[in-house]
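User: structure tokens for Sugar kinase, please.
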Amino acid sequence: HVAVSRSTMRGSAVLALEQAAPDVAPDPVPVRERVEPVAAHADYYRERLERFEKLADLA
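Assistant: Done. Predicted tokens:
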């Protein structure tokens, strides 16, 4: 989880910064808690992704 309450607003600001000052890097996003995937659930996630891609016609 990131420690940014208005992440959409931050994203818009970063996009504007890229246009206004392309040589200026945005500040890093403060991370409150890192969440790692559970390796034992990989098959489930893979199946969900395949289903999503089929439904979204992205495959």
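User: Anything notable?

Assistant: The helical segments are 7-20, 42-56.
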